[in-house]
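Anyone? Bumping this.
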Amino acid sequence: MNKQIETVINYHNRTKHSLERYAKGPETLDWEDQPDQFRHFSGCEIITLPTPGAELEPLFADLDKPETIPAQPLTRINVGLLLELAFGLSAWKQFGPSRWALRCNPSSGNLHPTEAYLISTGADYIAPGVYHYVSHDHSLEQRCRFSDNLIDSDLLIGLSSVHWREAWKYGERAYRYCQHDTGHALGALRYAAATLGWSVELQADCSDEDIARLLGLDRTDDFKKREQEYPDILCRINTNCGISPPLPSGEACPELSRRGRGEGFQKSTNHERPQYIKDLIEAAQSGAWFGKADSLRAYHLYNWPIIDEVAIAATKPQTEEPAWQAVRQPLLTSRCTKTATAIIRQRRSAQQFDGKMSPMPQADFYRLLAAVLPTTAAFELWPWPPKIHLFIFVHRVDGLAPGLYALPRSPDALPTLQAATLADFDWQPVSDDIPLYHLDTGDCRVVVKTLSCHQPIASDSAFSLGMVAEFGASLAVAPWLYRRLFWECGLIGQTLYLEAEAAGVRGTGIGCYFDDSVHELLGFKGNQFQSLYHFTVGKPLEDKRLETFPAYGHLNDID
Ligand SMILES: Cc1cc2nc3c(=O)[nH]c(=O)nc-3n(C[C@H](O)[C@H](O)[C@H](O)COP(=O)(O)O)c2cc1C
């Protein structure tokens, strides 16, 4: 086996939680020593963005058909809104003397390892260059000034992760959570862009090295040792073109189609970078750079070298990516009448659920599942065939027997999943509208709570689920696909979070579960399939002890 693939698989196996032991993490936590959630670069020009909190007209339900949403002009106000709705603050919470911020994008442990950068190639709203977004202040720090406008006047967003921020609390398993968070951030960006009538296009062929050079992450002297950022994703935001229109109504369509060069990708040894990326890197390299990252304050009591090892093994080279996209299909209609901006800003994780809730309406449950199929507008930015499938523990859904269900996210996966799971699962289709299959009937609340590190959020909800990846086959192709599997999970998770809010309930991501016990319950053997993320949805119980404050009230205080 290729050494890098072996390193990634070893990392994955070693960071499994089990009933007998949790993955290796710090033995003690000094909360005073928590890493700063907000990165600042000292020595940069700061560009204050227009006051956050503006409402836009599109309803959340309109995002199913993004081509019907008028594209907003590329102005500083709208770029500010994009950043706020994707990565900005959504509220402050306070309990006694403790006060903490929540953001539009969720994060495991609220540690927020993801950093966001904006690259302007030359338009009126901001001078061409690279900017770091500071969600706390809703401002941009200019890291690089390009000497010239590039021909293409575009907007790009880059994402990176400070692994150590997450490892401070979660130790070795933290690298997985950083990848989930990247997927969530990508999802948050997609919803924010769609609300503005814009779309997100992944620059998937870029190497990590290229992204690092572009965002200035390779400037090691600008970062304190062990607080460096790792490049993840580069996206182009299309601000004046809609997403590809849906099929004319009534036209028969295959559920998934493969366009272009097929579904694999090829590592490109001598593949030329697109001219556009070349120009950007050249502009970054010849530009003037400013600032140094402030220390994240904490001392580094624990060391997790395995995270550095897996990060190196899963580094992505330049690749030639296929032009693949699922064909959009009509989606079960959302009953939500709220605006998209309201849903995005009200998203929270439920801390507790009402275990006595009346069953969730079946139509809402089906809509929620339909929304994570790759044939929806939300997944049009994901240019690869789906590799993640859902196994759902239904506790309280109208008209459905409690028990275990499956939602293969592609028809191709159905026979493989059937063959790999327990022989006595019945795999009976239960809906004409979505590929949902009944596997087994029974009350699984106690089991699921135990499997989810004994967390009641998995059992007091309407349903909880495991996201099962086509793991072995993906990794056999390339080690860095490990990260992409987690990103796909995060993207699904972000959709579930927002759809839950739209259905009047609430979701919570679950990163803590006993990996191999889940596999055993489902019948999976070996590493062909692995459960990479869990999620739960139900009626939240508010913690009345917590006070809530507006997201950006502190900016007014400063004024
Ligand atoms: C990848 C991931 C894993 C998470 N795992 C858990 C979990 O196991 N248990 C839990 O109670 N919350 C979990 N959460 C929820 C976070 O704690 C929550 O997102 C964070 O506190 C921020 O709060 P917010 O989502 O309300 O903004 C997870 C969130 C993410 C994104």
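Late reply, but here is one note on the structure posted above: The pocket of flavin mononucleotide is lined by residues 102-103, 106-110, 177, 180-181, 184, 348-349, 455, 457, 508-512 (CB under 6 Å).
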